[in-house]
């Protein structure tokens, strides 16, 4: 009798896991399709062949480790952070965010990742960045 109960529990767990996985995949697909359609829409709305590519800002090296600054610059360029964190359609400043990404759930705006202490991440500590949910 215990074996039967255990097998029923295993079957319910497997079924529940499969259903949750299917829901997750459906939501992820729905979101990605929405983002893809948003990018297509933005491209078709542009209707121009002149694109805006913001310049990478010159880093302020005053009182900072130049090697660390160069490493950050390399990572920002390698990750192409400027692409999402700059509102290029509105010719926004580099890394100040505000780029709308339209999804089926509404628009998501990219955040400001400049070192500005009021509007950016200038007051963030290394511990705060490490504990951010996206870094886990």
Structure description:
The protein is mainly alpha-helical and 136 residues long. It folds into two domains: 1-51; 52-136, no CATH class. Helix content is 50%, strand content 6%. The protein has helices spanning 2-46, 66-78, 81-84, 126-131; strands spanning 100-103, 106-109. It has a two-stranded antiparallel sheet with strand order 1-2. Strand 1 (100-103) and strand 2 form a beta hairpin. The longest helix has 45 residues, at 2-46.
Shape, per Cα inertia axes = flat
Total helices: the number is 4
Percent helix, as a range, is 40-55%
The number of domains is 2
The major beta sheet can be summarized as: 2 strands, antiparallel
Give me the count of strands.
2
Give the end-to-end Cα distance, rounded to a whole number of Å: 43 Å
- How are helices and strands ordered from N to C? HHHEEH
Instruction: Give the neighbour order of strands across the main sheet.
Output: 1-2
* Radius of gyration, whole Å: 22 Å
Question: Mean of residue pLDDT?
Answer: 83
Question: What amount of the residues lies in strands?
Answer: 5-15%
User: Which structural class is indicated by helix and strand composition?
Assistant: mainly alpha
Low-pLDDT segments, ≥5 res: none
């Amino acid at each position: 009798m215990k074996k039967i109960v255990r097998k029923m529990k295993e079957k319910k767990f497997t079924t529940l896991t499969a259903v949750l996985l299917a829901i997750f995949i459906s939501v992820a697909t729905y979101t990605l399709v929405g983002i893809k359609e948003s990018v297509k829409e933005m491209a078709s709305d542009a209707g121009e062949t002149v694109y805006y590519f913001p310049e990478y800002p010159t880093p302020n090296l005053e009182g900072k480790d130049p090697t660390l600054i160069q490493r950050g610059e390399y990572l920002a360029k390698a990750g192409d952070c400027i692409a999402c964190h700059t509102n290029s359609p509105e010719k926004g400043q580099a890394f100040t965010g505000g780029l709308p990404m339209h999804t089926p759930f509404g628009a998501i705006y990219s955040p400001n990742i400049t070192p500005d202490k009021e509007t950016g991440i200038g007051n963030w500590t290394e511990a705060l960045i490490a504990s951010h949910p996206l870094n886990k």
